[in-house]
Amino acid sequence: MAVVGLGTREYAGHVVAALYGEFDITGAASVMAVLAAAAARNSRIVVDLAALEYIDCHALGALGRLRAQARQAGGDLLLAAPRGPVRRLLDLTGLIGVFAVHASVDEAVRAADGSPAAVTRTQ
Question: 112 in a domain, yes or no?
Answer without folding.
Answer: yes
